[in-house]
UniProtKB/TrEMBL annotation:
Swiss-Prot/TrEMBL keywords: Decarboxylase, Lyase, Pyrimidine biosynthesis
Record EC number: 4.1.1.23
Pfam annotation, one family: OMPdecase
Domain of life: Archaea
Listed Gene3D superfamilies: Aldolase class I
Pathway: Pyrimidine metabolism; UMP biosynthesis via de novo pathway; UMP from orotate: step 2/2
Protein name listed in UniProt: Orotidine 5'-phosphate decarboxylase
Keyword Translocase: no
């Protein structure tokens, strides 16, 4: 399993790239981005839209081809009964992913998650879009639950920086916080880090840019100003 913090240290970056939307052939598109962005991007978060376009075999090939340079995170927002989540995590780990994002609202996941070895689990404690009232209303509950699970960290939105700060203040120190919502959804690069996030997840403002390298570079430069590198 790749070392997420070690890669971050080496690249002096806190950028995780969200790969959901592609233009043209998905394999060619992903290949082009990943071949170019390795010096700047620490992790690649593979979303369901990409997996559905590429097929799971294509995703596994991508993970295998670029596995030496990136941490691979599966974002299929797993939300099922514990036995099924356990099996999903085992298969994603087998496919080469270093970590997965799971919903915490199904609860009762203690046993399913405690058996996971060599694969990081990140629990969603809030969502980045404005209408996510139900989840956000249970933010404190989800945070408490996440902190008891002994997982690698949580996903909390950069678009709601107050929640990132509360997550940082509440969670055990070794929990990582991954923050989506930077760029296309409005949060400024570096802003979630300032509120206590460990990584920022950025998708469309890089993937949809003609100059994706320049777009990623601007994110990382802003982050370096915050982390002092
Ligand atoms: O393109 P954009 O930068 O908005 O991508 C954000 C990514 O983060 C998407 O892959 C989305 O699924 C994900 N995400 C999010 N809010 C959450 C959890 C994940 O936006 N709470």
């Amino acid at each position: 399993m790749r070392d997420l913090l070690g890669l971050a240290e080496r690249k002096k970056s806190r950028l995780i790239l969200a790969l959901d939307f592609v233009s043209g052939d998905p394999a060619v598109f992903a290949d082009r981005l990943l071949a170019a962005l390795e010096p700047l991007v620490v992790g690649v978060k593979v979303g369901l839209p990409l997996a559905l376009r590429m097929g799971f075999r294509g995703v596994c090939e991508l993970v295998e081809r670029y596995g030496s340079g990136y941490y691979f995170l599966a974002d299929f927002k797993l939300a099922d009964i514990p036995d099924v989540v356990r099996e999903e995590l085992a298969l994603l780990s087998e496919a080469g992913f270093d970590g997965s994002i799971v919903h915490l609202f199904p609860m009762g996941l203690e046993e399913a998650l405690s058996g996971v070895r060599g694969h990081d689990v990140f629990g969603l404690v809030a969502m980045s879009h404005a209408g996510s009232r139900l989840l956000d209303e249970h933010f404190e509950d989800l945070l408490r639950y996440a902190s008891r699970l002994g997982i690698r960290g949580v996903v909390a939105p950069a678009t709601k920086p107050g929640l990132v700060a509360r997550a940082r203040a509440f969670l055990p120190e070794d929990y990582l916080i991954l923050s989506p919502g930077v760029g296309a959804q409005g949060a400024e690069p570096g802003s979630a880090l300032r509120h206590g996030a460990t990584f920022e997840i950025v998708g469309r403002s890089i993937t949809a840019s003609e100059d994706y390298y320049g777009a990623a570079e601007r994110v990382v430069e802003s982050q370096r100003r915050v982390i002092g590198e």
